[in-house]
């Protein structure tokens, strides 16, 4: 039986880069892997974009009201079987989408590897991430460091270079003067107190 994997970490820990490396590994072995990302993630449009400057075209963009099972069946009827599904920005998916990924892994025997954030800039969970943390067969933390050198576990949002701690849950990195910085808990609270 294939599994549903959740590989999570703070911003800038290399999630998208790791996804593209796994894609390369499958293709190098003559196997077919596809990339899925949520339509919500407008960064890069129909591409997965890494901070290292590499990118890869996405095979399927999923909207909030899409049924992943139906879309995947249509894709496979047109393009043949697949060996792995790689999911970028998994935190933006709805609970139902994560349940579909779980069913695909179990019923269709296709591994589904999801990459995403656990929490937003105000330490709240994302719907997709919360569901993955509950039902994924395997959880793996991808690590990065804070500006102070400690392990970063949180995401600080900056607008025009200043940390903010209120606002909509979703604000895409690089749009509307928004950027993110991975922070340890100590630095996070220090910046929050200053704000």
What keyword list fits this structure?
195 residues, alpha/beta, six-stranded parallel sheet, 5 helices, 30% helix, elongated
Commentary on this structure:
Helices cover 30% and strands 25% of the residues. With 195 residues, the chain is of the alpha/beta class. It has a six-stranded parallel β-sheet with strand order 5-2-6-7-1-8, with helices on both faces. The protein is elongated, with a radius of gyration of 17 Å. The model has no long low-confidence stretch (mean pLDDT 92).
How many strands, which pairing sense, and closed or not: the largest β-sheet?
Answer: 6 strands, parallel
How would the global form be characterised? elongated
Give the distance, in angstroms, between the N- and C-terminal Cα atoms.
49 Å
Q: Strand sequence of the main sheet, in spatial order? A: 5-2-6-7-1-8
- Proportion of residues in extended strands: 15-25%
Structural class computed from helices and strand pairing: alpha/beta
Helix content: 25-40%
């Amino acid at each position: 039986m294939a599994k549903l994997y959740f590989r999570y970490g703070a911003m800038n820990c290399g999630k998208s880069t790791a996804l593209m490396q796994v894609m390369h590994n499958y293709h190098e072995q003559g196997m077919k892997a596809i990339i899925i990302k949520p339509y919500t993630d407008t960064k890069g449009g129909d591409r997965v974009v890494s901070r290292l400057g590499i990118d890869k075209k996405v095979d399927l963009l999923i909207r909030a009201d899409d049924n992943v099972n139906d879309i995947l069946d249509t894709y496979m009827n047109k393009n043949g079987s697949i060996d792995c599904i790689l999911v970028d920005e998994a935190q933006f998916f709805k609970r139902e989408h994560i349940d579909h990924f779980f069913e695909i892994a179990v019923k269709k025997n296709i591994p589904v590897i999801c990459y995403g954030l656990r929490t937003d800039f105000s330490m709240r969970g994302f719907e997709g991430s919360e569901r993955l943390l509950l039902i994924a067969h395997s959880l793996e933390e991808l690590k990065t460091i804070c500006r102070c050198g400690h392990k970063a576990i949180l995401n600080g949002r900056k607008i025009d270079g200043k940390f903010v701690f209120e606002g909509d849950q979703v604000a895409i990195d690089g749009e509307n003067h928004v950027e993110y910085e991975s922070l340890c808990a100590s630095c996070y609270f220090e910046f929050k107190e200053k704000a």
